[in-house]
Amino acid sequence: MNEEKLPPVVGSKSFIAVAINCAAKAGEWIKIKLGSVENLELKCSSADLVTEIDKGSEQLIKKLIRTHFPNHAFLGEEGVEPGAAASSKAIAETKDAEYLWIVDPIDGTTNFVHGFPFFCVSIALAYKGEVIVAVIYDPMKDELFVAERGKGAYVHGKRLVVSQDATLEQSLIATGFPADQIYALPLNMKSLQHIAPKVRNIRVSGSAALHMAYVAAGRLSGFWEMNLNSWDLAAGSLLIQEAGGMVTDIDGSHYTLEVRNIVASNGTIHSQFVDELQKSLQNSK
Ligand code: 2AM
Ligand code: CA
């Protein structure tokens, strides 16, 4: 979308100002709550967690967005039943809304619960299915990553640029161990075994959104994971695109809000990365 075609700003505050305000407020609140989880619930398995702080953070963000933009649609992780089918249905039903806010109130809940300082708040705004505003906030490092379509991506005023690594061999790559231990985890393990000897090293830090922000910032050259949800990926996808990188489905097709198997990179290594992931999954489909 070029700049002339950007939708008009509605209300007294710009979309990006509201997104930043929400992420900053929610991030500060979850940081204060670190170490004080009272109600730990399991969703699909012991690897799939939710706390009252995920729910509180989502409510805070939803209320603030509703105050400024009462007619906009809202999709948040905590408003959707657990499991891939419910997530796919939720995004299929909302993706055509004119304006859709897509929110993960804590991405990296397992880390949050264990006090491992790698989690974030992820907020994206899509206009007719295309992400136009993205904010990812890491309250532990006080890093706020922001992007607007056509205007670049920034962290505290510094423009984000993807890494220059030219080959997989030179690349630091991240992935995740998916919570779905029946389908997605075994597939990701196959890919991990295939990719690990072909790259400089691999990191698995437990927040897909923050890994995506790190690809945008050039700290990682790539990230892949199976079976993620729109709220894990939407904000990160725009940050990476605006920082000069690429985001696709694992089959190499272009990113949409419905993509669940993600490959993100600095762009230069993308085709090599997708080719190797495809090789790793041969005979698995
Ligand atoms: P979350 O903390 O918001 O749940 C880690 O591999 C990544 O997977 C995190 O971004 C985490 O997001 C996400 N994740 C955790 N459980 C998941 C599930 N059941 N389905 C899909 N993604 C999940
Ligand atoms: Ca979450």
Number of helices: 8
What do the pLDDT scores average to?
Answer: 92
Order of helices and strands: HEEHEHEHEEEEEEHEHEHEEH
Can you summarize the main beta sheet? 7 strands, mixed
**Annotation, overall tally of beta strands:** 14
Shape call: globular
The structure class reads: alpha+beta
- Estimate the strand proportion: 15-25%
Rg estimate, integer Å? 18 Å
Alpha-carbon distance between the two ends: 35 Å
Helix proportion range: 25-40%
Q: Residue ranges: pLDDT <50 for 5 or more in a row?
A: none
Identify the strand order in the major beta sheet.
3-4-5-6-7-8-9
Which cofactor or ligand species appear? adenosine-2'-monophosphate, calcium ion
Structure, described:
It contains eight helices and 14 strands. It is α+β, with helices and mostly antiparallel strands and 285 residues long. Strand 10, helix 5 (184-195) and strand 11 form a beta-alpha-beta unit. The model has no long low-confidence stretch (mean pLDDT 92). The chain is globular and about 50 Å long. It has a seven-stranded mixed sheet with strand order 3-4-5-6-7-8-9, sandwiched between helices. Helix 1 packs antiparallel against helix 2 (52-68) and helix 5 crosses helix 8 (270-281). 35% of the residues lie in helices and 22% in strands.
